[in-house]
Design a protein that fits this description.
- By secondary structure, the protein is α/β, with parallel strands linked by helices.
- The longest helix is centred in the N-terminal third of the chain and has 10 residues.
- Helix 1 crosses helix 2, helix 4 runs parallel beside helix 6 and helix 8 packs across helix 9.
- The protein has 2 domains: about 180 residues, Vaccinia Virus protein VP39 (Rossmann fold, 3-Layer(aba) Sandwich); about 60 residues, Orthogonal Bundle (Helicase, Ruva Protein, domain 3), CATH 1.10.8.100.
Length: about 250
């Protein structure tokens, strides 16, 4: 087990089966698994799915994975941050996995970019990250990651997995979360980048953050623009819903 890969292997069969059930895997499905590790979840997926493709970065794990799997499992040696999801399978697939804590956020961005090939996403991640993804406006967890994911997907929290279920034990709880893509949503990198900048200082009001983003716009014009977008002049970024942010984004000419 290598710290640089953030490896924490889960072997509790009851939890593994809960993950497969929460992912709603069926006998006709093709599944891509991120980080099969020792292969415990891979075997549970293979017992139900038509085909399982495991993406594993640790080359020392590849031989035992390949030799110990049923014939409907293919193991690909690759980094999930680099793999071309569009070329993994000829058909759209369901994505499942136990994501390394240190690369969870960039992986979600890659899943979003490949959402026309990835049917849905069910993954285990650090509990705090899962809570941020599913957070609602006005909560302490709500932030740019919440907006990024929820703009494209409905996020559903599943269940918590304690550190004792892993070897080695992580220092934090984990949670399973599922993403189902919203239909007809076009790419909006400019919008999500704008939201990230709008959250640049959570202690400041949105007006102050916008003033820093647009130094050439007089403050009174920023206040007027917020009013035209039905946003209170002293609102903070974490109070705004996605439609609120879209109105502000559209008003300021992005």
């Amino acid at each position: 087990m290598k710290k640089r890969f953030g490896q924490h292997f889960l072997s509790d069969k009851s939890i593994l089966r809960k993950i497969v059930a929460f992912a709603n895997i069926a006998p006709t499905h093709t599944v891509v698994e991120i980080g099969p590790g020792a292969g415990a979840l891979t075997r549970e997926l293979a017992a139900i799915a038509h085909r399982v493709i495991g993406i594993e970065i640790d080359r020392d794990l590849i031989p035992p994975l390949r030799s110990g799997m049923p014939p409907n499992v293919e193991i690909v040696e690759a980094d999930a941050l680099d793999v071309d999801f569009a070329k993994l399978a000829s058909e759209p697939f369901h994505l499942v996995g136990n994501l390394p804590y240190n690369v969870a956020t960039p992986l979600f961005k890659r899943f979003i970019a490949a959402r026309f090939q990835i049917l849905d996403v069910t993954v285990m991640i650090q509990k705090e990250v899962a809570q941020r993804i599913a957070a609602k406006p006005g909560s302490g967890e709500y932030g740019p990651l919440s907006v990024l994911v929820q703009y494209y997907a409905d996020a559903k929290l599943g269940f918590t997995v304690p550190p004792g279920a892993f070897r080695p034990r992580p220092k934090v709880d984990s949670s399973v979360i599922r993403l189902d893509w919203r239909p007809g949503v076009a790419n909006a990198t400019g919008f999500t980048d704008f939201v990230h900048r709008a959250f640049s200082s959570r202690r400041k009001t949105l007006a102050n953050n916008l003033a820093a983003m647009f130094p050439s716009i007089p403050r009174e014009k920023i206040i007027e623009g917020l009013g035209a977008s039905d946003i209170r002049p002293h609102a903070r970024p974490e109070e705004l819903s996605i439609p609120d942010f879209q109105r502000v984004y559209n008003h300021f000419g992005y």
